[in-house]
Amino acid sequence: MQYRKPLIFSVEISARYGPSLMPGGDPAAWPHLKNIFQSIAAKADGEPCCEWVGNAGSGHFVKMVHNGIEYGDMQLIAEAYHLLYKAVGLNHDQMAEVLQDWNKGELDSFLIEITANILKYRDENGEPIVPKIRDAAGQKGTGKWTCFAALDYGIPVTLIGEAVFARCLSALKDERVRAAKQLPRPTVSSDVVIQDKREFIKQISKALYASKIVSYAQGFMLLAEASKQFNWDLNFGAIALMWRGGCIIRSRFLGDIKRAFDSNKQLSNLLLDTFFTNAIAEAQDSWRVVVSSAVRLGIPVPALSSALAFYDGYSSEVVPANLLQAQRDYFGAHTYELLEKPGTWVHTNWTGHGGRVTSNTYNA
């Protein structure tokens, strides 16, 4: 096969066709800078991917969350690739064709597009280059910073967290090589787990889409909490528009997010928007099949599975935190609330020897 030159980096594309810009700071400066910034920004449907974000720090925070979501998107696609390769048994040209097909539908995005190009790329020997790349991912910190902020504000940005930890785990390459020779692995074959490979490929695409919805829902949850903490009054529809061009997470999907927030300014979570509720309903059976199949085959899917776990937790009226509260009260007298009296904290003398002394309630 003919040797092809590498793809142009997205940084170079942004330099030529405009980046996504997320300005924030002193609002008095914006009228003086607006025309300059919007003229050089990327355009989506003729609109500049640049709008005023908010007061001090808001632009940097929005950019940070963008990068955190980018970590999640990349990890989800990597897991889909791993499933196509290890579970379905496709070669790199076949996987490229699958992703090119996905890019014609709801998964249309910059990252799916470049991943298809990466998979079909050949080196000077005419061989796929991806299998020759050492599987130890680097990172520069923005995903980690997003997780720090999520922990500070108590927002369960679990998928981005798993994406960051997946990179940390990948960096343990030498240790993983040793462990692979020593630790037992599942013995079931993919032919037993996957009855119809064409159908399973479709299910992977649906699992990827559903997980992506959860990832963005979590990202906007974090933006909403930061907006509340700092009185930024963020415009989430405008933020989605800013991300529709000139950035790594550019995708058709962001138009649906913009429409969701434009139609309901008080929307508390993307999952509660009718469009995304219906999308999850259509995809969730496939999502569960993919995650359970990966578990049986021993193929790690931390982002896909954490997204599903978050969805199941968020959609559960009751979770086992009641037992956690009882445990905390038993060993530390931390007290708990009763369902019939929320806001009133009580302590139980579980052993008969603990007395009535309690610790102060606090939130970490």
Automatic annotation (TrEMBL):
This is 6-phosphogluconate dehydrogenase, decarboxylating. Pathway: Carbohydrate degradation; pentose phosphate pathway; D-ribulose 5-phosphate from D-glucose 6-phosphate (oxidative stage): step 3/3. Pfam families: 6PGD, NAD_binding_2. GO terms for biological process: D-gluconate metabolic process; pentose-phosphate shunt. GO terms for molecular function: phosphogluconate dehydrogenase (decarboxylating) activity. Keywords: Gluconate utilization, NADP, Oxidoreductase, Pentose shunt. Homodimer.
